[in-house]
Amino acid sequence: MEVLRxxxxxxxxxxxxxxxxxxxxxxxxxxxxxxLHYVDExxxxxxxxxxxxxNPTWSYxxxxxxxVLAGNGYRAIAIDLIxxxxxxxxxKMKDYTIPxxxxxxxxxxxxxxxxxxxHFILHDWGGIIGLRAIADNQDRVASVIMSxxxxxxxxxxxxxxxxxxxxxxxxxxxxxxxxxxxxxxxWKTLSNIALTNMPKADVAGFAAPYPHKKYLTGxxxxxxxxxxxxxxxMLTENWHALQKLKSFEKPFLNLFxxxxxxxxxxxxxxxxxxxxxxxxxPVILKGGSHFLLEDVPQEYAAEALKFLKSVETN
Length: 314
Description:
By secondary structure, the protein is an alpha/beta fold. It has a single domain, classed as Rossmann fold (3-Layer(aba) Sandwich). 32% of the residues lie in helices and 16% in strands. The strands form 2 sheets. An 8-stranded mixed beta sheet has the order 2-3-5-4-7-8-9-10, sandwiched between helices. The protein has a two-stranded antiparallel sheet with strand order 1-6. The mean pLDDT is 96.
């Protein structure tokens, strides 16, 4: 497996991101290892809060939430998925699958960091990968906050009547575009989707891990794994994970925004199926796009902290 590693100097002086890097090694598919990066701020004996980003972000998206959590006594941990941020970047599209991402996350969080009683905050693809990891490690989890994502499933016992999933035309066109767009400057896509006028320094922060198009493979492959067809194996894999999550009774909050362009009603995919969601009405923040931590970071932090504090007192 050919692997790239973004030079450290690319991360010098990033806006609002003064955090020291931390790394764990996770297994690749050929008997070697990959280096996974994570931010680790706050008291080491504080209750861990694990943040998992999606595409095309990295741990930089949590830069305004991390200090709030750390300042309130939590151990704030924000990982970079393999292929993104400061983590190692395999160079072939085929190197990335959702089961591999799940295995890398589980190994990093539950095996190497050995976290117990952890709260999870999940966004975008981090929702799918994170929930699948949680499904197999429910005893290590204290609560979940899920934001602007969904958990699409397909019952493997139901025959597939049509191959294309409803409403997938635009996403299929997007997939085709990115398949051949090796220089996808996704930080520009992100800034165009955000409702706020993002400072140039913040856009540069999202671009920092990708000094050349050869570093973009992991981001591009996420677009190809979008479930636009009913034969996508992720759908039945998610279905099996959801059956396990039907026993998850710990607190589970859906924290969304009102102008999410990607998954505005994604909470319907888990609520009320997962028992932990039933006591928590979805919180919908006003004025936030899909990338709500760029638009309403203070409001997001306040709601997340309110939930975490309520979990502690219950």
